[in-house]
Amino acid sequence: MYKEHPDLKKPKNDSIIWRYLDFTKFVSLLDRKALFFTRADKLGDPFEGSHPKANIPLRAKIYKGEIPLEDIGEIYKLLREFTAVNCWHLSRHESAAMWRLYLKSNEGIAIQSTFKRLKDSIRDKKHDIFIGKVQYVDYEKERITDDPMSSFLYKRKSFEHELELRAVIQELPPKGLSTRSKRPFDDGVSVPVDLNLLISKICLAPTSPKWLHELVESVTRKYQLYKEVCQSSLDKKPIY
Q1: Domain of 153?
Q2: Given the DSSP bridges, would you call strands 83-90 and 34-39 parallel, antiparallel or unpaired?
Q3: Sign of the torsion angle spanned by Cα atoms 184, 188, 190, 195
Q4: In this predicted model, what pLDDT tens digit does every residue of 166-208 receive, in sequence order?
Q5: Does 62 have pLDDT greater than 90?
Q6: Is 199 contained in some domain?
Q7: Are the CB atoms for 99 and 234 separated by under 8 Å?
Q8: Which residue among 34, 104, 129, 165 is buried most deeply as judged by most CB within 10 Å?
Q9: Is residue 1 one of the residues assigned to a domain?
């Protein structure tokens, strides 16, 4: 279920969020009635869960000899295998950059929601799920909050255009983290959600064909999801 975290920055409840996905993943969302949280080390960014240079000199003071300094970096790197995330784009409007970044064709879909809809739609009673805005910092000069959860809510400045809202699950072994610890998930974990509560509307990619619009409407009705299916606003004709 959703839980508050004191160190995570949250948007307003009515803040609009978007999730961009291809048609196959959209159908999987409908069929499973679940959001997929990807294990952090599978996201493709080697900086996931990493720390800026400015954090390193402070580690001796923070951990006070409880963990050998030479082991701390390896523990944070290992922590990625015990953390899973689900990513959203935080914006009032759809993003041309996000369409290009996440989709390889014009057969993509964006589901629109809000921060409140997202947290209220979660039906998972097994995991604690935290949600916060990703903060973008200069990893050469700035420092970040030094705790296991917060390190996954920071990214490099070069990703600032993503305006990411991130939901995070972190399952730590009760006896402490080690390379021998059993991983709580393989590639990730599916989290049950109420789709009618989560989704406010469905938007089709720019230049998407008419048949895709008809197919998406048909599929959503099949799964008893009665939401507006609209064409991307980027397809509107310019006025001169």
Answers
A1: 16-235
A2: antiparallel
A3: positive
A4: 999 999 998 888 888 999 999 999 999 999 999 999 999 999 9
A5: no
A6: yes
A7: yes
A8: 165
A9: no
pLDDT at position 148: 86
Structural domains counted in the chain:
1
pLDDT (tens digit, 9 = 90+) per residue, 91-112? 999 999 899 888 878 889 999 9
- Over residues 27-44, the mean pLDDT reads 96
In a domain, 240, yes or no: no
